[in-house]
């Protein structure tokens, strides 16, 4: 489950920033999770709970994880159509041209939007 190490990296980043700001604990973490980022929200949630149970990363007992899901987007280089591609397709198939001419323009992001602490 690579979400475990992914979440470990996220919480490490948050902890370092929270420490620098003089926070005692982190109460809320907000993530942007792209549909094509290869990170599964359920697995991320599970990983978050595991780290929290371990008392890792300064997470408060009631700390929560919020995920904003970013849909997959592609733009066809031939006809210019913007559409939602099939997930995890190497080259997105344009529904009009019937050709793998889509360039992925959204859904690959995975990052921390914000966090709260005190
Ligand atoms: Zn097209």
Describe this protein's structure:
- The protein is built from two helices and six strands.
- With 118 residues, it is α+β, with helices and mostly antiparallel strands.
- It has a domain at 2-70 and 108-117: hypothetical protein PF0899 fold.
- The strands form two sheets. The protein has a three-stranded mixed beta sheet with strand order 2-1-6. The chain has a three-stranded antiparallel beta sheet with strand order 4-3-5, with no helix packed on it.
- Strand 1, helix 2 (41-53) and strand 2 form a beta-alpha-beta unit.
- The longest helix is centred in the first third of the chain and has 19 residues, at 2-20.
- The chain is elongated.
- 25% of the residues are buried.
- The mean pLDDT is 93.
- Zinc ion (ZN) binds at residues 76, 78-79, 81, 94, 96-97, 101.
Looking at the overall shape, the CATH architecture of the domain at 2-70 and 108-117 is 2-Layer Sandwich
Mean pLDDT: 93
Beta content: 25-35%
Rg, nearest Å = 18 Å
| Cofactors, ions and other ligands in the entry | zinc ion
Unreliable residue stretches:
none
What's the SSE pattern?
Answer: HEHEEEEE
Shape: elongated
Largest sheet: 3 strands, mixed
Return the CATH topology of the domain at 2-70 and 108-117.
Answer: hypothetical protein PF0899 fold
């Amino acid at each position: 489950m690579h979400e475990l190490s992914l979440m470990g990296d996220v919480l490490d980043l948050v902890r370092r920033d929270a420490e620098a700001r003089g926070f005692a604990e982190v109460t809320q973490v907000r993530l942007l999770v792209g549909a094509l980022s290869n990170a599964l929200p359920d697995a991320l949630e599970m990983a978050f709970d595991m780290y929290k149970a371990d008392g890792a990363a300064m997470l408060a007992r009631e700390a929560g994880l919020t995920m904003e899901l970013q849909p997959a987007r592609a733009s066809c280089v031939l006809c210019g159509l913007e559409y939602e591609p099939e997930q995890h397709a190497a080259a997105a198939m344009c529904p009009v041209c019937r050709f793998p001419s889509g360039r992925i323009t959204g859904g690959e992001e995975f990052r921390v939007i914000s966090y709260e602490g005190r």
